[in-house]
Amino acid sequence: MNQTTLSREVPWTYSPTLPSTLSSRLRAQHRELKLKLAALEKDYADLHKALFEASQVHRRLCAPRLVRHGDVEIASEIFAVRYLPGDFFTIEEAGGCVIIALGDVCGKGLAAGMWTPCLVGLVRAHAAASSESEAIVTGVNREFCRMGAPLTSLFLARLDPSTGRLEYCRAGHPPALLVRADDRLESLSEGGMLLGMSPDASFTTGRVDLRSGDVLLAYSDGVLESRNDLDEEFGYERLEAQLRLARSGTASEVLFSVLGAVQDFAAPHALVDDTSLVVVRAGSRSAAL
Fold it and tell me: Which CATH architecture has domain 65-288?
């Protein structure tokens, strides 16, 4: 019988036996690690639940996704990069007019998101005291500077749905875009610096009239900064082109057309910043202006 046959017929394995004390110690460590892992998994689940609940609170602080005032439709959407967005959008009524405010706290995640309730509260408080856009932004900025809050951009407008008159003020926020029914496009750029830079900052007010078929788009910089595989930004030109393509739809249709264009452009990459869109569409009664 040769060696090959022998090794095939009489298999041999090595099975070391650990000393009983060492084996007991390893079993104890294994049990301890399992308990620690279970505790970490519970902590993670609790944190995930808390973040989800916080995001729902944020959603309730913001305006409903679709609002109608007379013949004016207002559609909005906010997407967070890290659970809790630093963007917010709110609508308040004051003196027969509608105050709309879209803000973006610098930063991402919890640090930025925890400031949004404060900012929403300040906008509401100052809107209750004055319906003038410039006065509201000036008051919010003074309070933000006093609290040492992070730099924040804000687009705030006062709209009279019965006449279509819109007065606005932007604090370091990207200019809103107004596309007319005849396809002319205007950039709403009046305002001033970011909130929180200087308590003595001054702001200016711009005024436009919304007529039948006009569409106003306000947005956060996350829209412009979305990037594709070539590291190109979505940018103003693509945003303006998509707004013109979609302007004949309802406020919701315009919003999701622009949002879809941004997501298609950036796919398969995730959004790099919180993304907010607000569409204001003027209806038929504004044609009498």
Answer: 4-Layer Sandwich (3.60)
